Amino acid sequence: MPRRPRESTDDQPVNPGNKPRVRFIFEPDRTSPNGITYFWLIHDTYNGKEKAATATRAFWLPFAYRHSGNYSEAELRDLAQQSIWQMESQIQHLREEFELGLARPDTTELVGATEAENLKTETISGSSLVQPVTVAAAADLLDEFTDAL
After folding, report:
1. pLDDT: is 109 or 44 the higher one?
2. Which residue has the higher pLDDT, 18 or 40?
3. Domain that holds residue 118
4. 116 and 82 inside one domain
5. How many other CB atoms are found less than 10 A from the CB of residue 142?
6. Same domain, residue pair 48 and 116
7. How many domains does one find in the chain?
8. How far out from the chain centre does Cα 38 lie?
9. For residues 149 and 33, is the Cβ–Cβ distance under 8 A?
10. What angle do CA 77, 91, 114 make, to 5 degrees?
11. Co-location of 29 and 79 in the same domain
12. Domain-embedded: residue 5
């Protein structure tokens, strides 16, 4: 059920400057990965809603800005780089918090020996690094974390 807009007070208008707003309501099952995450963010952390919004922006803001058509290629590249730095900072925080090293597990540990032999690889442009080619489309990489609402 949609929430009612909050009432304004004399000292605090509902929408200062009459800026257009985006309403986003997300109600995952509390026992799902999303439900557990958002419940923790909202109830057990300082400024959890802003943390959730920051994470979403780090993942998707460069794509949204590109889609808007209002930004130059240089601005988009700068924004994408800032997003990468933000995500790398969170990755480092995870490594430190959960005492994880930098080493990635062997591919056979991730997918099994037979599947690892069949993985296609590509050389990263301008580098000697080789990485597995992603089978899923970029937009589908997080599907395993979606909730059935």
Report:
1. 44
2. 40
3. 104-134
4. no
5. 10
6. no
7. 2
8. 13
9. no
10. 100
11. yes
12. no
In-domain check, residue 46: yes
DSSP letters spanning the chain: -PPPPPPPBTTB-SSGGG-----------TTSHHHHHHHHHHHHSTTHHHHHHHHHHHHHHHHHHHHHT-S-HHHHHHHHHHHHHHHHHHHHHHHHHTT--SPPPPHHHHH-HHHHHH--EEEPTTSS-EEEPP-S-GGGTTGGG----
Say what the pLDDT of residue 79 is.
Answer: 98
- The model's pLDDT over 26-37, given as tens digits with 9 standing for 90+, comes to 899 999 999 999
Higher per-residue confidence, 9 vs 55: 55
Read off the pLDDT of residues 82-125 as tens digits, 9 standing for 90 and up. Answer: 999 999 999 999 999 999 988 776 656 666 666 656 555 555 55
39 assigned to some structural domain: yes
Last residue of a domain, one of 61, 86, 102: 102
Report the predicted TM-score, pTM, of the whole model to 2 decimal places: 0.59
Amino acid at 55: A
75 and 87 part of one domain:
yes
Tokens at residue 74, please?
A: 């240089």
* Residue 124 sits in the same domain as residue 92: no
Beta bridge partners of 122: 131
